[in-house]
C-alpha cells in the first residue's frame, strides 16, 4: 500500500463527508441565523422557537437530498470495495 494510495483514499473520505454533511449544515445555519434575527427583533427568547425550524429544515433537506446522498455514498463504497484486494495485498 503506497502513501499516495492511502492519501487518495483519505482525501476521498473527507470529500464524501463534506458533500454529505454540507446541505443539512448549511440549512441549519441559515435557519438558525434567521430565527436569531427574528428573536432579536421581537425580543422573544423561547428555546423551542430556535430548535423546531432547524429540525424541520434539516429533516426536509435530508428527505429531498436522500437519493443524492445514497448515490454519493454508494459510489464511494463501490470504490472502496473494488480496492479491497489491494488493501490485503492480493492485487
TrEMBL record:
The chain crosses the membrane at residues 25-44, 56-77. It is a multi-pass membrane protein. InterPro entries: Bac_export_3. GO terms for biological process: protein secretion. This is EscS/YscS/HrcS family type III secretion system export apparatus protein. Coiled coil: none annotated. It holds the Pfam family Bac_export_3. Belongs to the FliQ/MopD/SpaQ family.
Amino acid at each position: 500500500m503506497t502513501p499516495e494510495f492511502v492519501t487518495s483514499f483519505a482525501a476521498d473520505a473527507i470529500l464524501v463527508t463534506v458533500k454529505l454533511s454540507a446541505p443539512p449544515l448549511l440549512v441549519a445555519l441559515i435557519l438558525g441565523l434567521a430565527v436569531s434575527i427574528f428573536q432579536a427583533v421581537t425580543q422573544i427568547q423561547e428555546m423551542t422557537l430556535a430548535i423546531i425550524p432547524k429540525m424541520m429544515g434539516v429533516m426536509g433537506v435530508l428527505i429531498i437530498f436522500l437519493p443524492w446522498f445514497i448515490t454519493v455514498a454508494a459510489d464511494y463504497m463501490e470504490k472502496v470495495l473494488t480496492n479491497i484486494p489491494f488493501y490485503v495485498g492480493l492485487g
